[in-house]
Amino acid sequence: MAKMRLMEAVQAVAEPRRREILRLVWDTELSAGEIAEQFDVTFGAVSQHLKVLRDSGLVTLRQEGRKRYYRADRAAMGPLADYLQAMWAARLDTLADLAEQAERAAQEKGTT
To answer: How many domains does the chain have?
Structure first.
């Protein structure tokens, strides 16, 4: 990924909703409508986020009739793909740790 394109990609993923959109389309292709259903903002707002992701080379677009389908373009991301995957894995690890702590606390509470 060229230096300028990489800077655009980093700026694009700096926005939390765009990171979440990327996570949604990381392993699967989703229509714009399916993506928009996951957010509490207008379809137009999600569409603008998708345009930024597409313009920065982070997602691919496939049009079928009137529907637009998006998928993360991990190959085009280069090292940014590894970073995002590691970030999401760390978040899942943190969530798992918190769940385990809550379960232990509940068990301790139940035994006293």
So the answer is: 1
